[in-house]
């Protein structure tokens, strides 16, 4: 199904930088047999809080250079991430021109093409010009990608029965919660609480999030790439830059409202500066939604006119409003697991508390609003 190479015996260490470079060089000599070891430059990239990422540039005798990325998965992340789904999603994305080529899969990572450019800062996500580029790219994802095609690739890759594949956000959250430890009374009580909460929120919002799409599910600023020369202080007179999304390890079929709500929540950054999150249904979010819905019409080619009436924006805002608490719930569980398994220097425990607080605050508002509606 793909021309990429599988090297199951190769492991790239995470913490031992010297051993990491040796293993990476050996790996790349297998993937690219024409390369010469002493012409290869390896630089460790920063920015992620899950994996190790290496930028590897081969300097040929000619003026041409080739750069690839080697990503080694963080310790224990297979507990959280379906690596076969990630691999198959990357293949499907590449077939639509939405991801770089995938050169190899090894025991604890991938080798794939490098996308030149820079990742944006979280403070830039509200830039009106960049907003249009991001909303249009996400609408393309949600329109042209096919969850059934990815599922079939997974079946072909691992020989799994379709019924055994984790294929929606509810199954995934249930799996994550099942992996939480119960070695102390506090942890046991927390696990029971999250299990019950998952049942409640699924019953409340599962059918209120709009169409099922191939969602990125991790559209934070670091996963949005724009040209290096695109200015950080751009204004509304500029055309939106070409935008590419990277890192597909959390991509999953979900209602579109989750992907949108999650992206807006990422406007706060890892600092959890909630003042930067746009108001649901406010002017900024409605404009973002209008551009997104224009893109859906453009890529689905089901309308000659791209005009989006207010009632369609209202429907989208209602979907996001219903799913507004799910990113906090989702990432709160994720960070709870990471606080136990990760070797990366990041305060996952505090991050889990902050993200789950977002969910509890949303639930309070949701329940009050629902009670008012029921009394009308």
Main sheet makeup: 6 strands, mixed
Q: What order do the SSEs take from the amino end to the carboxyl end, as H and E? A: EHEEEHEEEHHHHEEEEHHHHH
**Number of helical regions:** 11
Report the portion of residues in β strands: 5-15%
| Poorly predicted ranges | none
How do the strands and helices of this protein lay out in sequence?
Layout: E1 5-7, H1 17-31, E2 40-45, E3 52-59, E4 65-72, H2 83-95, E5 102-106, E6 109-113, E7 118-119, H3 128-144, H4 147-158, H5 169-178, H6 185-205, E8 212-215, E9 224-226, E10 244-245, E11 252-255, H7 256-265, H8 283-300, H9 310-322, H10 326-341, H11 348-375
Helix pairs in contact: 2-4, 3-8, 5-6, 7-9, 8-9, 10-11
């Amino acid at each position: 199904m793909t021309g990429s190479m599988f090297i199951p015996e190769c492991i790239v260490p995470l913490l031992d930088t010297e051993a990491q470079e040796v293993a990476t060089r050996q790996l790349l000599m297998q993937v690219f047999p024409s390369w010469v070891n002493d012409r290869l430059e390896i630089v460790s990239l920063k920015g992620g809080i899950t994996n190790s990422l290496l930028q590897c540039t081969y300097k040929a005798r000619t003026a041409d250079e080739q750069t690839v990325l080697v990503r080694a998965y963080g310790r224990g992340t297979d507990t959280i991430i379906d690596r076969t789904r990630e691999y198959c999603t990357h293949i499907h994305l590449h077939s639509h021109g939405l991801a770089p080529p995938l050169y190899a899969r090894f025991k604890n990572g991938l080798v794939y093409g490098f996308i030149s450019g820079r990742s944006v800062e979280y403070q830039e996500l509200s830039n009106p010009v960049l907003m249009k580029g991001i909303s249009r790219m996400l609408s393309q994802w949600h329109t042209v990608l096919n969850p059934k095609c990815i599922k079939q690739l997974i079946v072909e890759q691992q020989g799994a029965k379709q019924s055994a594949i984790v294929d929606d956000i509810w199954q995934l959250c249930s799996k994550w919660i099942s992996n939480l430890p119960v070695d102390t009374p506090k942890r046991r009580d927390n696990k029971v609480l999250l299990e019950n909460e998952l049942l409640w929120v699924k019953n409340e919002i599962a059918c209120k999030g709009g169409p099922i799409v191939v969602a990125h599910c991790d559209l934070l600023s670091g996963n949005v790439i724009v040209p290096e020369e695109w200015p950080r202080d751009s204004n509304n007179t500029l055309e939106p830059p070409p935008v590419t999304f990277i890192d597909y390890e959390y991509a999953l079929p979900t209602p579109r409202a989750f992907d949108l709500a999650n992206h807006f929540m990422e406007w706060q950054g890892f600092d959890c500066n909630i003042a930067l999150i746009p108001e649901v249904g406010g002017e900024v979010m409605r404009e973002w939604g209008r551009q997104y819905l224009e893109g859906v019409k453009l890529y689905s080619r089901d309308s000659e006119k791209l005009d989006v009436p207010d009632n369609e924006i209202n429907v989208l805002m209602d979907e996001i409003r219903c799913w507004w608490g799910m990113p906090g719930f989702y990432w709160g569980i994720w960070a709870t697991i990471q606080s136990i398994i990760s070797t990366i220097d990041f305060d996952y425990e505090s991050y889990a508390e902050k993200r789950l607080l977002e969910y509890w605050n949303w639930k309070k508002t949701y329940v009050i609003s629902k009670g008012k509606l029921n009394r009308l």
